[in-house]
Write a structure and sequence with these properties.
Blueprint: E1 4-5, E2 10-14, E3 21-27, H1 37-47, E4 65-68, E5 70-71, E6 74-75, E7 80-85, H2 107-113, H3 131-149, E8 152-160, E9 165-166, H4 177-185, H5 193-208, E10 215-222, H6 236-244, E11 250-255, H7 266-269, E12 273-276, E13 279-282, E14 290-291, E15 294-295, E16 300-306, E17 316-320, E18 325-329, H8 340-361
C-alpha cells in the first residue's frame, strides 16, 4: 500500500480513520520557508469535521503536532513529520462491515486486495479522514507559494446536488481578492451568497431523507510563471490530476473548458495572444493555463467532480461475504451528508503540493535567503 506522491517534494500520508493518530512526512521541502502556524491551523479548521449541520457529527480538533522539520518558525531542511491525534472514534459502528461491505465504498475491493487484513473502522486508510494530513502538507505549500512567488490558489464549490445549484465562476484571467474573501465569509465556500444558501438547502434536504449529495469544485492558481511542466506524462495537468485523485471522493478532473471544449470550434476554443507590457498574454483561458503540459502564464483553472457520500441512512442491497448470500445493509456511524464543502481546502492543498513539487523539480522555486548570524555582545569569542 503506497501513499506517497511527489518527485522532489515527496509527501507520505500515514494512519487510519480510527488509528491512534494520522499524519504525514514531507521530504524535500526547501529550508527556510516561513510557516505561520496560526494561518495553518485556520486552514485546517476549514476541513475539520463537526463544524456545522452539513458536516459529520464527529468532532476532532485536528491540531497537528510537529515531530520534526521545523525550527524557529521555518522549515529546516530535515524531513517534516506531523501527526494529528484521533480522539473521537466509535469503531463499534463498523463491526459488521467486514462481512457486509458498503456499496460505494472500498470495503469489498479492499477485502480482496488485502486478504481481509484491512482496517474497516471508519473506512481505515481509505477514509477522507486522511485528507487532514494532506492539508498539513498542502497548507505549508500554499504559504510557500504565496510568500515566495506570489502564487495564490483559491477553490470554491462550483456546482452542487441534483438541482445543480451553481456558483459564480472564478475569474479565469485575474486574481480577485473579493472573490476569495466571499468564499471564506459565506456559510458554504461559494463566491455568491445566494448560491451558498441554495447549496445548503440541497444538502439539508438530502440529510433529512438519510441521503447524500455530491458536487463540483473549481480551483484556480494565479501567478504561476510561464514555461513550467513537460509534455506527455509529466505535464502540469498530470501532476495535479494525480494528486487530486488522492482525495478519496474525486471521480473526475477537467482543465479549462474541459469536456465543453469538445463542443466548440477551434476558432472558439483557441486562446488568442497579445503583447501587454512586453509580455505575451492569453486573452481568454479555455486552456486552463496549460498547453502541451506546460504553463502558459494564465491562471491554472481546473475542476473536480466529488461523488455523494456513500455512507447513507437508506437501506441498500449488499452481500454477506461469510455466508455467500445476498444481504440488506443500513449503514450506522457518523457521516457527512455532503463532503464537498470540507473538500474545498483539500483541493487547494493538493494543487499547491503539485505545483510546488514541479517548481522545485525544475529549479524555479527561489531558495529563501540564508539566516544571518547574530553576535551577542554579552558573550565572548570562542
Amino acid at each position: 500500500m503506497s501513499s506517497t506522491i511527489g518527485d522532489i517534494v515527496r509527501v507520505t500520508v500515514f494512519g487510519q480513520s480510527h488509528s491512534e493518530a494520522i499524519g504525514c512526512v514531507v521530504e524535500g521541502l526547501p529550508a527556510g520557508i516561513e510557516v505561520d502556524l496560526e494561518e495553518l491551523q485556520a486552514f485546517l479548521d476549514r476541513r475539520a469535521p463537526g463544524r456545522g449541520a452539513t458536516s459529520t457529527p464527529r468532532r476532532e480538533a485536528d491540531r497537528p503536532r510537529f515531530v520534526s522539520g521545523l525550527a524557529n518558525g521555518h522549515t529546516c531542511g530535515a524531513p517534516l513529520c506531523a501527526e494529528i491525534q484521533n480522539t473521537n472514534t466509535r469503531s463499534q459502528d463498523y463491526e459488521g462491515l467486514r462481512r457486509v461491505p458498503r456499496p460505494g465504498h472500498a470495503d469489498y475491493p479492499a477485502f480482496v486486495r488485502y486478504g481481509n487484513h484491512h482496517d474497516v473502522a471508519g473506512g481505515g486508510h481509505f477514509s477522507g479522514r486522511l485528507t487532514a494530513p494532506l492539508c498539513i502538507a498542502g497548507g505549508i505549500a500554499l504559504q510557500a507559494l504565496e510568500s515566495n512567488l506570489g502564487i495564490k490558489i483559491v477553490a470554491h464549490i462550483a456546482q452542487l446536488g441534483p438541482e445543480k445549484a451553481t456558483d459564480d465562476p472564478l475569474n479565469p484571467l485575474v486574481f480577485s481578492e473579493d472573490q476569495r474573501k466571499s468564499i471564506l465569509a459565506n456559510a458554504l465556500p461559494c463566491v455568491s451568497e445566494a448560491a451558498a444558501d441554495a447549496m445548503y438547502e440541497s444538502i439539508m434536504a438530502a440529510k433529512a431523507e438519510g441521503d447524500s449529495v455530491g458536487g463540483v469544485i473549481e480551483c484556480a492558481a494565479y501567478g504561476m510563471p510561464v514555461g513550467v511542466g513537460d509534455p506527455m506524462f509529466d505535464g502540469i495537468e498530470n501532476r495535479i490530476a494525480k494528486a487530486a485523485f488522492g482525495i478519496p471522493a474525486v471521480k473526475g478532473v477537467e482543465f479549462g473548458a474541459g469536456f465543453a471544449a469538445s463542443t466548440l470550434r477551434g476558432s472558439e476554443n483557441n486562446d488568442p495572444y497579445r503583447y501587454e507590457h512586453e509580455s505575451v498574454v492569453p486573452q481568454t483561458n479555455n486552456a486552463g493555463g496549460i498547453l502541451g503540459g506546460i504553463t502558459t502564464g494564465a491562471p491554472i483553472v481546473w475542476r473536480c467532480a466529488i461523488k455523494p457520500t456513500p455512507s447513507i441512512g437508506i437501506e441498500q442491497n449488499s452481500v454477506d461475504l461469510a455466508t455467500g448470500t445476498n444481504a440488506p445493509l443500513k449503514v450506522r456511524g457518523r457521516h457527512d451528508p455532503c463532503i464537498v464543502p470540507r473538500a474545498v481546502p483539500v483541493v487547494e492543498a493538493v494543487c499547491a503540493l503539485a505545483l510546488l513539487d514541479a517548481l522545485v523539480y525544475e529549479g524555479k522555486f527561489p531558495m529563501p535567503a540564508p539566516e544571518k548570524l547574530s553576535v551577542d555582545s554579552t558573550q565572548g569569542a570562542f
